[in-house]
C-alpha cells in the first residue's frame, strides 16, 4: 500500500496500522460455528415460498421490506426486530413484513461499508468479527420468526449468510454486473433487482433475464476452495423501482411503463417500489407519501405492484459516523423513518387494503 493510502482517513479518523493480509474463516467454518437451530431452515423455506406465492399471484398480500438503511449496532437492530416481530401478526392478513438486515453498503464514492466490513466503525476493517456479528444477528432475528432481507454486494460473502436470507436485493450500483446476475441465478431466495442510479430500468430487466438462466461461474466451495459453480437459474426475481438521479419513478405512468417493459421482455410483470432513495428525493419523511401513492395505484387495480420497501430505524433521521458519540437506534447511512411513524404507516396500509 502507498504511504498516501496508509495515512488516509475514514470520516476524519486516522486509519490504524495496515495489515496487508488477514485470514478470515471460510463460510463452512462460520456456518458450523453458528448453525441454524432445528426447524429454522424449514421456516425460512416457508417464508421464501410465501414471497414466491406473492410474485406468482397466488397470495394477494403486499410484500414489505422494512428496516434500517444499514446495521451498525446489532443490539439496536435486535430491538427493532422485536418490535417488527410484534407488529407482523397484526398486519399479516394483508402485509408480509420482511426485515432489512443490511450488513454491506455500496457507496457512491467512499464511506463506511457496513457491519460485515467494519464492525468497529473506525476503518480498522475487522471483517472476521464483522462476518460473525452479521451471521449471529441474522440468526437471532430469524429466530424471532421474521423473514430477512439483505443486499448482497460482495459475491464471496453470500455463502456465509445465504441460508438465512428470504429476500435479496441486488443494488442500483450492481444490477448491471454479470457477477451479481450469476450470484442471483443460484440463490434460494427471491431477488429484487433495482433500477440503475441513472433511473434506467432496462439493466434490471436484463438482470432478471440473465438470472433466470443457469450459469457456470467462478466460485468458492464452503471450505474456500475455488470451484466451478453451477446454478439452476432463479425464476423468482423482480424489478425494484427506486428512482434515479434524484427523480422519482413510483408514480402511475412510471409503473405502467415498467409493467409494459416487463411484459414485452417476456418477464412476469411484478415489481416493488422502494419508497426511499431517489423516490423520496433522499428526504426520509417523504416515504409515507410514496407509500400512499403506491397503495392507491394498487387499489386502483395495478396488479404488477407486489411490494414496498421502507427505510426505518428505532429513531428518525441519520447521524454522522463518530464512534463513541453515536445516538442509539439512529441510522449512520441514509436517513430513516422512526419506529412510531413506521408502525403507523404499516397499520394504516393494512387497514386500507382490508377495506378494498
Ligand atoms: O442506501 C444507502 C445509500 O444510498 C447508498 O449506500 C449510497 O450511499 P452514499 O451515496 O452515501 O455513498
Ligand atoms: C443502497 C441501497 O439502495 P440503492 O441500491 O437503490 O441505492 C439500499 O437500499 O440500501
Automatic annotation (TrEMBL):
Which family would the database say this protein is a member of?
Belongs to the class-I DAHP synthase family.
The record's function comment reads:
Stereospecific condensation of phosphoenolpyruvate (PEP) and D-erythrose-4-phosphate (E4P) giving rise to 3-deoxy-D-arabino-heptulosonate-7-phosphate (DAHP).
Q: Which GO terms describe its molecular function?
A: 3-deoxy-7-phosphoheptulonate synthase activity
What EC number is given for this enzyme? Answer: 2.5.1.54
- From start to end residue, where is composition biased (Polar residues)? 1-12
Pathway given in the UniProt record: Metabolic intermediate biosynthesis; chorismate biosynthesis; chorismate from D-erythrose 4-phosphate and phosphoenolpyruvate: step 1/7
Q: What is this protein called?
A: Phospho-2-dehydro-3-deoxyheptonate aldolase
In terms of SUPFAM superfamilies, this protein maps to: Aldolase
Recorded catalytic reaction(s): these are: D-erythrose 4-phosphate + phosphoenolpyruvate + H2O = 7-phospho-2-dehydro-3-deoxy-D-arabino-heptonate + phosphate
Region Disordered: list its residue ranges: 1-22
Q: Tell me yes or no: is Transferase among this UniProt entry's keywords.
A: yes
The top EC class, named as a word, is transferase
Instruction: List, alphabetically, the PANTHER family matched.
Output: PHOSPHO-2-DEHYDRO-3-DEOXYHEPTONATE ALDOLASE DAHP SYNTHETASE, PHOSPHO-2-DEHYDRO-3-DEOXYHEPTONATE ALDOLASE, TYROSINE-INHIBITED
- Keyword check for Amino-acid biosynthesis, yes or no: yes
Q: Which residue range or ranges hold the DAHP synthetase I/KDSA domain?
A: 53-345
* Key words, A-Z: Amino-acid biosynthesis, Aromatic amino acid biosynthesis, Transferase
